[in-house]
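## retry 2 of 3
previous attempt timed out at serialization; input unchanged, resubmitting
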Amino acid sequence: MNNRAFHIPLNRRLLLRSLLLATGGVITSGVYAEALTLTPRQTEGPYYPDHLPLDQDNDLTMILGGQAPAGGVVTSFGGRLLDADGKPLSGSLIELWQADQNGCYIHSRGAPQGRERDPAFQGYGKITTNEKGEYRFRTIKPGLYTGRTRHFHIAVVKEGKRMLTTQLYLAGEPQNEKDGILRSIRDEMKRLSVIREFKPASGEGGDLTATWDIVIGRTPEDPEPPRRKGTGGPPPRP
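## retry succeeded, writing output
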């Protein structure tokens, strides 16, 4: 994985450049903390899996023991998990769950009327960040369902505590402008921090790829509600 510099929006990069010039190249970590945009929290949604798959790795395109790959456009993304000071966070769990190409989730109520879930799509995956805070997922371009734009659901768990629940969006999607959950992020910098341009992957026909760094604060989210017996996920949140 490429060890790319963490994301700083352009105008804040210019701010840092001016500070470097003004201070002879010496700035404190506090300035970097000010320049970084914390990844905004977003709703978990009603479709966190209520039955987790046996295969939970970071490649959602192929189920362990499956005979065929999932349908849809293969899409990958990854980057680094950082704290507010820009320090990479190793050993943290990142979860991904999303709709398949038909707009269906691996949830008992996750299939819109008239649609069937792709049995070859894993639907949920997770990965632990390495010593550089890096992570990566291989999945598919999320399908559409009524009322939403295409999106990935992401959760970050550190030392057993849910630190962040958010969503990642694809730049250029027509539905982005009308999506109420995306539009609810009023701060432009924060809104842009969860929208990424997915470009064609070199040498892989039709595949898409993007880089996305996740920046979390020091305070975990509210404690998880009790999980229902026999299920993998918590009750749906508002």
